[in-house]
Amino acid sequence: MQKPSIPEGTRDFGPEQVQKRTYIFDTVRAVFVKFGFQPLETPAMENLSTLTGKYGEEGDKLLFKILNNGDYLKDVNPEVLANRDSARLVSGIAKRGLRYDLTVPFARYVVMNRGTLSFPFKRYQIQPVWRADRPQRGRYREFYQCDADVIGSESLLYEAELTQIYDEAFARLGMPEVIKINNRKILLVIAEAGGIPDRFMDMTVAIDKLDKIGIEGVRKELTERGIAPEAIATLEKILAAQNIDALRPIFADSETGQTGLDELARVFRLLEKTALQNEVRFDITLARGLS
Q: What is the set of domains in the chain, with CATH numbers?
């Protein structure tokens, strides 16, 4: 007799674990509400046309696809099936997928409801997401995300406010943390300085892993992605900068770079007026690969 099991990369949560998790969620939710964020929930599945192309090549590969209802092979081209052409086959047998994160569904929601929303729109969302990643310690295929986003304003006050949210949530949970911030404009200029502005996604995906795989690992990944040694050397030199002042001369000829540094400096000035309980630190290696 086969023993019951659950899919790899998923977990059961017993009563004690659920109670602890509920306490954490309630604590984080209370902070979101305090700062004026409104709740939002979106479906577990989205149209693949909404999800694909938003996470880069690496992210798209980790999307869980949902087979179409009924005879999902009836409309598939026999030649595609015979050639085992996975990319073309998926478009014929799956129109939906499980959400990979909460950001893309939020963007889709805003587009669909922009006529009825008041901007700036501040929303929070606490829901599970799914990624077809290789399960390992601390990495699962099903897990929860707690998101807070502001859309409809470019004010840096919201950047400072989001940092305050992190600070207060960790403080309420009794978890001292170092909160790291960066500016996307700085990442763009790093790519330009390395002569690889067209490889921005490849660069950010690689350097985002610096704290996990070290500089040697990042160098290897960039090389495997076809980035030239000269460009990698330039990136390493810039990434070694530990503070805003050290980047000023490096970005002297870049208006975008100087703007990014000015924005970061202003956020830190705004935060100086608040009573933070955790350290906030600039980290040039903090990078996200989302397109």
A: 1-153 (3.30.930.10), 179-291 (no CATH)
